[in-house]
Design a protein that fits this description.
The protein contains 2 helices and 5 strands; from the N terminus they run E-E-E-E-H-E-H. The protein is of the alpha+beta class. The chain has a 3-stranded antiparallel sheet with strand order 2-1-3, with no helix packed on it. It has a two-stranded antiparallel sheet with strand order 4-5. Strand 1 and strand 2 form a beta hairpin.
Length: 68
């Protein structure tokens, strides 16, 4: 899945797999959740991951898609 970084440029949002976030920085982004399965949402620094900056996001298929 790609992340679209909302940088104030309207429809021209950069598509990224990874976004660097500076300490105390806030960003707006959009994720199109179109790939079912378990996905890691995490910081790449192991110390941060040990402190809880790691989540598993589970995307399941919509009921309408399952019944097709």
């Amino acid at each position: 899945m790609f992340i679209e970084l909302d940088n104030g440029s309207g429809l021209h949002k950069p598509r990224k797999h990874t976004i660097n976030v500076k300490p105390a920085e806030r960003l707006s982004l959009e994720i199109t959740a179109d790939a079912p399965g378990n996905w890691a949402l995490h910081c790449h620094l192991l110390l941060h991951m040990e402190m809880g900056m790691f989540r598993v996001v589970n995307l399941s298929q919509r009921v309408a898609e399952v019944n097709k």
